[in-house]
Amino acid sequence: MEDKSVTETANSATGVKQSSSDQSEISISISKKTLKNIAIFASVALAVIVGILVGSFMQSSNRFSSAISNCDLEGSTYITVDQNGKGIYLDGSGTNNQGGLSSSALTCVLSELRAPNSLIERMNHTTALMGAQSSQFNGIQVEWTYHPNNGLDISFTQN
Questions:
Q1: 103-112 and 32-70 are packed helices; what angle lies between their axes, rounded to 10 degrees?
Q2: What residue spans of the chain are helical by DSSP H?
Q3: Which of 11, 103, 138, 146 would you label with 93, given CA atoms 20 to 30 Å apart?
Q4: Residues 60-119: pLDDT tens digits?
Q5: For residue 64, which of 46, 89, 94 has the smallest C-alpha distance?
Q6: d(CA 149, CA 94)
Q7: Are 120 and 114 a contacting pair, CB within 8 Å?
């Protein structure tokens, strides 16, 4: 038989109380200080998670705005930005759409968004017969079409 005082002393250090008469009953007591520490930890963890989510949203919407700004394309009527900032549409220049974005403007935006060269080459080699094309890079979904009359039109959406 186990010494009752040794069991009670060992269990009191861990906050576990065990009845000597009925070993199947266990109660756990937590001090107010421990509860306060748990609450503080949970609050900090929640704040960090919310901060990460908000930061992620802000980064995605700033990513597109920064690309447009760095390419000096603010105010262009050939760029449509989604209201939530998570997507943009670029209307490229074609034979019937002389006022669209130039190929250098499109290349600038792709470069600012850090699109891989392989994707840019795919876009450069897209023909009207290929229809709509799509790909993904750096958390961005991109779709594009090309027709000589309409030019290269590109849509970006943050995943």
A1: 160
A2: 4-14, 32-70, 103-112, 117-124
A3: 138
A4: 458 899 999 999 999 999 999 998 889 999 999 998 877 899 999 999 999 999 999 999
A5: 89
A6: 5
A7: no
